[in-house]
Amino acid sequence: MILKGLKEKSNKNYIDKCVKNRVVDSNTNKINTVGVIVDQSEFKDLNWLQSLSTTLNVNPTNLKIIALVNPKQKEVNIYDVTYTKKDLGWKGTVKTDILKTFTNTDFDLLISFYKTSKLPLVFLSAITKAKFKVGVLAEEQVNDLILDIDINNTTIFETELVKYLNILNKL
């Protein structure tokens, strides 16, 4: 139990370090690659996430979705690429190749699509390489743009995201 707390503390410190050292690129390049981080216990509309590429004018093969799952819950996994909190190591390390691939992909846009502040979700959002980060969780400083919207209201999220990306000349 004590080791689990120390591990969480080391990862929180790493998140703070990533946020502090992140250089925000203020370019107006168009979005070609999109990464999405979701919590399976909060959001289960995979079809909407896949159709998001059409809304953003992105090739569907350039949309990568990863979901945090809880292995203790007996629910059907609807996402292809998943991870658990056990896939995170100490001091900002990741244990699986899936997470290494996702975090090392240089996304043009990263969407952190979760409302609950869970360490594995915030951790992945912080360490993933992305030029521009959008989220719906208002209390974290990981994102460049925060849309404080209910994640189940996908129509408003889509409208607001497109509106702000157009203002920033990213679409």
Description:
The mean pLDDT is 86. The chain has five helices and six strands. A six-stranded parallel β-sheet has the order 3-2-1-4-5-6, sandwiched between helices. With 171 residues, the protein is of the alpha/beta class.
Features of the shown structure:
about 170 residues, alpha/beta, 6-stranded parallel beta sheet
* Mean pLDDT level: 86
Task: Name the structural class.
Answer: alpha/beta
Shape: globular
Q: Looking across the biggest beta sheet, what order are the strands in? A: 3-2-1-4-5-6
Compute the number of strand runs.
Answer: 6
Low-pLDDT regions = none
Total helical elements: 5
Question: What can be said about the biggest beta sheet?
Answer: 6 strands, parallel
CA distance, first residue to last residue: 47 Å
**Helix share of residues?**
25-40%
Our estimate of the beta-strand percent is: 5-15%
**In sequence order, what are the helices and strands, one letter per element?**
HEHEEHEHEEH
List strands and helices in order, with pairings:
Layout: H1 2-21, E1 34-39, H2 46-55, E2 63-68, E3 82-83, H3 97-104, E4 109-113, H4 119-127, E5 133-135, E6 145-146, H5 154-167
Parallel strand pairs: 1-2, 1-4, 2-3, 4-5, 5-6
Helix pairs in contact: 1-4
In short:
The protein is of the alpha/beta class and 171 residues long. The protein has helices at 2-21, 46-55, 97-104, 119-127, 154-167, and strands at 34-39, 63-68, 82-83, 109-113, 133-135, 145-146.
